[in-house]
Design goal:
Mean pLDDT: 82
Low-confidence stretches: none
Strand content: 5-15%
Distance between the termini: 108 Å
Number of strands: 9
Structural class: alpha/beta
Largest sheet: 9 strands, mixed
Radius of gyration: 37 Å
Helix content: 40-55%
Shape: elongated
Order of helices and strands: HEHEEEHEEHEHEHEHHHHHHHHHH
Length: 495
């Protein structure tokens, strides 16, 4: 059965590596849920027998931490590695803690925000059980310091995503020195597991709990409706951590405490019993889930094989394939623009561009005409240009001002044409990428981004060119132009 646990761990690693949620197959797992400062970290470190979790105020665990424990009797020194650095093994667990902090800050930033992207850590030792636990961010109610205002909603959403999985075992952590009826972890567990069929409760800080009849009933499982059991443990306190008291010493102290004060139920509590209970629960749970899991894996395998086969043969030379894809992409884009890839199914990009320019520029410019009150404007311009002295001849500035006013009407339709032309080219980019790079989604996404960035840059350059061109036209009105002189002679002949 331990081999099946290793297979499930491998499946989990594959999903995390490719960025797909393990919810795809609803893998069996033990999910650890608890509020801040309930002793959740101490419970996990006691199970792992190492100080490896970051500590501090506020939310310390800000990403799901998948802890995969493996027993290997050939290992002399406990060691750990991360999925994102599988070849790097740490024997100093302070380095493990620092790497968790570094990788968390890299994804979440340093503002105490959280992320659903998990960190996977493998711990191997001769004295460890083969067990996998998922540590989730602690439940928080109020945003503190740099935490986002919606930190409570973010936390609940992330926790629910894991505990809603029908194959998840919920390990609900509750402090013994608080009213168990107000336990946030048990409230959350009840929302998705109202009958308690897949919930196990862990009562921490039993040494700080009053030894009353009511609390004894809690430890004996007479109060809480959880069917996988209730186990009390004693946490390592801050002084133990600061004084570097070993986990083994604290476990011995815990066992002695239960023998002294709860001797009738001592064998049913403590970290050692919790480990045994979790192993048994997970083994049985995997056994129950296995037939359905095998069926879903088989079905998913068939689907993925069909997708893989639709992508064509395996790429033997990635560089050559990349160069060929780029060549085909460019040729297809040119064909779209120049019309050599015409199809009755859709208009080519070139035709659509021509339609845009003919409609937006040609039709708009044809509609530009002299204003109805042009004679009044001419008279006003002449008076303004003459100043205090009446003019015998019409000054050139009059014509220049009136011509510039007409030229300004060219700018809006040309700008509209450029914008709509860019939209049409954007459609061409998307269409070519979809057809040519369908087999390579990452390459398609990258090519699309590069092409769009270039298109936006050229759109700005085109708009700037038009502005400069029209400004140049406004600066010098060539009244000796052949068309102008020809039309002037015609007017003079008519008069």
């Amino acid at each position: 059965m331990e081999n099946f646990l290793e297979i499930i761990n491998d499946l989990q690693d594959v999903f995390n590596t490719v960025g797909v949620s393990s919810d795809t197959l609803s893998l069996p797992q033990i999910v650890v849920v608890g509020s801040q400062s309930t002793g959740k970290s101490s419970v996990l470190e006691s199970i792992v027998r190492q100080d490896f979790l970051p500590r501090g105020s506020g939310i310390v665990t800000r990403r799901p931490l998948i802890i995969q424990l493996t027993q290997d009797i050939t290992v002399e020194t406990p060691k750990a590695s991360f999925l994102h650095e599988p070849d790097v093994w740490h024997t100093d667990f302070d380095e493990v803690s620092n790497e968790i902090i570094r990788n968390t800050d890299q994804v979440c930033g340093k503002n105490k925000g959280i992320s659903s992207e998990p960190i996977t850590i493998k711990v191997v030792d001769a004295n460890l059980p083969t067990l996998t636990l998922v540590d989730l961010p602690g439940i928080t109610k109020i945003a503190i310091g740099d935490q986002p205002e919606d930190i409570e909603e973010q936390t609940y959403s992330l926790i629910n995503r894991y505990i809603e999985n029908p194959n998840s075992i919920i390990l609900a952590i509750s402090p013994g020195n608080s009213d168990i009826a107000n336990s946030e972890s048990l409230k959350l567990a009840r929302t998705v597991d109202p009958d308690g069929d897949r919930t196990i409760a862990v009562i921490t800080k039993v040494d700080l709990m009053e030894r009353t009849r009511e609390n004894l009933d809690v430890l004996q499982g007479k109060t809480l409706p959880v069917k996988l059991g209730i186990i009390g443990v004693i946490n390592r306190n801050q002084s133990h951590i600061e004084q570097k008291v070993t986990v083994e010493s604290c476990l011995e102290r815990e066992a002695q405490y239960f023998k002294n004060f709860y001797h009738n139920i001592a064998s049913e509590h403590g970290t050692e019993h919790l480990i045994q209970r979790l192993c048994t629960i997970l083994m049985n749970h995997v056994k129950n889930c296995l037939p359905d899991l095998i069926q879903r894996v088989t079905e998913e395998k068939i689907v993925q094989h069909e997708i893989l086969n639709s992508l064509g043969p395996k790429v033997e030379d990635p560089k050559l394939t990349l160069a060929e894809c780029i060549r085909i992409y460019v040729d297809r884009f040119k064909a779209e623009i120049y019309g050599t890839n015409s199809s009755w199914q859709h208009n080519t990009g070139g035709k659509e561009l021509r339609d845009v320019f003919e409609r937006e520029i040609g039709e708009a410019l044809d509609k530009i005409s002299l204003p109805e009150d042009i004679e009044c404007k001419i008279e006003a311009e002449i008076r303004n240009a003459s100043g205090s002295k009446p003019s015998l001849f019409t000054p050139n500035i009059v014509f220049d001002n009136l011509a510039c006013e007409i030229l300004k009407k060219f700018r809006p339709p040309v700008k509209r044409a450029i914008k709509k032309g860019a939209e049409k080219l954007s459609d061409v980019i998307a269409r070519v990428g979809k057809d040519v790079l369908r087999k390579y989604p990452n390459l398609k996404r990258e090519a699309h981004q590069i092409a769009m960035n270039l298109l936006i840059k050229k759109q700005y350059e085109a708009e700037g060119f038009i502005d400069n061109y029209l400004k140049l036209e406004e600066c010098y009105i060539n009244t000796n132009h052949r068309l102008f002189t020809m039309n002037r002679s015609k007017v003079e002949a008519e008069n």
